[in-house]
Amino acid sequence: MMRNFSWVVVNSGQRRRQAAALLCVLLSLLTSAACASIRDRYVYHAVGSPYEITEDIFVDRSGEMIIEPGVEMRFAPGVGIHVKGILKAQGTSEKQIMLTALNPPENNEKDSDRGVAVHRESSVEWPPLRLVDGQTILTGRLQLLYHDRWWSVCSSSKNWTGNDANVACRQLGFSDGALSGWVRRHNDSRQFMYSSPECSGLEASLDQCPGWNDRQLGSGVCEYHTDVEITCSPILQSQAHHHWRGIEFNGALAVEIKEHHGLSKRLVSSSALEHVVLSYGGRHRDGSAVAAVQVFGVPPVMHSVEVSWSSYHGINVTKHDYPFEIKDSLFVENRGYGIFINSTTGQVSLSGVVSRDNGADGVVYAYHESVTQNRLSLCESVSDNVAYPRGFFYTLDENNAKADCTRTLRSTDPSLIVTIHFKNMMRDDGPRSLAGGTVTVWDGDGTTTDTTDGTTTDTTKQLAHFVISNTTRPQSVSSRRDSLTVQFRPPDIPHYLKGSSDYYP
Where is the signal peptide (predicted)? Predict the structure, then answer.
């Protein structure tokens, strides 16, 4: 028997908070209650499963939510779990944890009114159109699936209207859209001329619009014409109204781990998802599309996780600054990307991961430039015993334009090497600019010699040498031993700048 109850823990004093948390635990054991706010340790026991969750669960910074193996939780539409503290959902191979919608839609239900097509080698049905070359699946060039091939849609008269874009976006599963503009295609030989759909805005798919009969296909039909670009609203159509929110980790608790005798450090999440099956997530309360697992900050430990049937991405990780790993997991039949990594720094390891039959790409990694915080000056005299990763910077101006700058980056563990990444290089190319210069990277400390058999041999090896330019960014460089030396040399002073009080007071 499944029972439903909601309880809110109010933080109004330590003693009252503990009493409320205890009462919430007791109610959970008796009635399968859902605590709307968790500020202490709270356990969803297998004995009370399945749980019907009708209110959002908020795990506060001081809270810890534990889901026992074998638990099944069924969430009302738009309801989800929001984690700032700790969430531990650790099942086993025999007793998986099931997180799903309260009333999930029937799989593979044919809906002829939406104009869907069966995705080959998959049980899920995707609309026969897509948006490509955009930052997300919500915007980009329009392509149609016609006779089992993708065709780029162009227009000779640029007569597409807002009604046409609305129909296309609704067919994609979103509420409405807009015409973004006209773009040139690149290396796309399959062309589909659909000059003027003339949709009224009430059609369920583009092939129901009056202009469909005037379509043209074939190489060359779009040779002198641009492609249609559309942007859709993230608000979902009614077919996703059964979906629940999913799990959001927003700055959730993590611990700092020091490795290699304190030489390097990283943050590891205190949360874990292991042997968890999460299905039919991806719908916010306001009806907008979100990832079934949304992470801002350090991702949870993820092992043997299955994410399927999300109305948007399977997982979206944003702003993680340290390496993390997803192991032995499956991301399948999600409407958007299976795995979307949207970050500036931090590495991702996918081990034994399968991402297939999703509505968009299986894995997308979007890298963004940023300036590393807590940086050290490349030329400032500080201890070489620093923890990595570590950012360095150097700014050339009139006060230091005459000086070379050299730093050796050293590992205290002889079994480790050092790698340097060049993240951001800018130069001012004005007529009186002092910008520019060269960077040289050496293996070792730059002065190492080897005395063997009475002879002295310089064993230092130059690994890289380049001129600073705005148009290129050097490739990363790794040492072959436990240290690496970086030297910056400013440019020669132009003759017409020598003695200039503007730069050399």
Answer: 1-35
Q: Check: CB of residue 242 under 8 Å from CB of residue 156.
A: no
- Domain 129-238 indexed as CATH 3.50.50.60: no
Radius of gyration of the chain (CA): 29
Burial of 451 from C-beta contacts in 10 A (0-12 / 13-18 / 19+): exposed
Closest of 100, 79, 90 to residue 43, by C-alpha: 90
CATH 2.50.20 fits 370-504, yes or no: no
Domain limits of the chain? 41-103+242-367, 129-238, 370-504
E-state strands within 432-473 = 438-443, 449-452, 455-458, 461-467
User: Cis bond leading into 197, ω under 30°?
Assistant: no
If phi > 0 it is left, if psi is from -120 to 50 it is alpha, else beta; for residue 281 that is beta
